């Protein structure tokens, strides 16, 4: 595939977990993947893996909390590649904090990354996408944002619910300009986030949870990556403003 034909895809939080799997999936599709993360070694390893598999990728150390860094990233990618075709806004944190300990700072940190981080990058990439009348955004919500309540994660649930509203508003505002905006609400996916004893289920409870998932297993990063690839593709050309639940049947299961 010639360089002109490659889509230019920016993925945040792409050093590990769902983001890394998504970067590799887009790399395998023949896209040029801009792998970004605050985890430098992990991000560079993802670029190496994509390159080793015959794909095309580059790494940027990028913190979604910075507006200046966001604008600089978008300007740099557009200057060198001419455009941005796809944004996968995946970076996120889920810190366990009891309501009694949920300070303004802790609330703001989660919102700054999980919700405002998406807004910042879309705001920066939107003018170019609209000018070319072409673009797709995929944002990561969670089942904790669309259906479940999560104790000691009120800030996370609220931010992930906010992603649903963000997706809807952006979708309508940019629909006539040829830019589509959709989201994914993953269930229990086997990543560092889920396996954190401190902040989420931890390994033992994750295995226990798997028993309650109708499909009988936890999800993988690849399970989410393939849906992100679909949402970003022309196969989803008439879809915008939607958040797809990808959870192995967890929400519709009855126990
Ligand atoms: N794992 C799950 O079960 C699950 C379920 C629902 C939603 N999600 C969401 O999917 C996304 C990916 O989750 P994951 O499970 O792969 O998590 P993870 O913890 O494995 O990876 C998160 C990534 O985000 C990056 N990140 C964190 N703060 C950042 C910042 N300020 N700037 C840039 N990057 C930053 C991390 O460095 C890491 O690479 C998150 O938004 C998460 O909330 C995950």
Describe this entry's structure for a reader.
This protein has a 7-stranded parallel β-sheet, sandwiched between helices. By secondary structure, it is α/β, with parallel strands linked by helices. It starts with 7 loop residues before the first strand and ends in a 9-residue tail after the last strand. The mean pLDDT is 97. Helix 1 (17-28) runs parallel beside helix 2, helix 3 packs parallel to helix 5 and helix 4 packs parallel to helix 7. Helices cover 47% and strands 15% of the residues. The chain has helices at 17-28, 40-52, 67-81, 104-114, 116-132, 143-146, 154-174, 192-195, 202-211, 221-232; strands at residues 8-11, 32-37, 56-61, 86-89, 135-140, 179-186, 243-246. It has one domain (8-188, 220-245): Rossmann fold. The longest helix is centred in the middle third of the chain and has 21 residues, at 154-174. The radius of gyration is 17 Å and the shape is globular. The protein is built from 10 helices and 7 strands. The protein binds nicotinamide-adenine-dinucleotide. Nicotinamide-adenine-dinucleotide (NAD) is lined by residues 12-13, 15-19, 37-39, 63-65, 90-94, 113, 140, 142, 186, 188-189, 191-194.
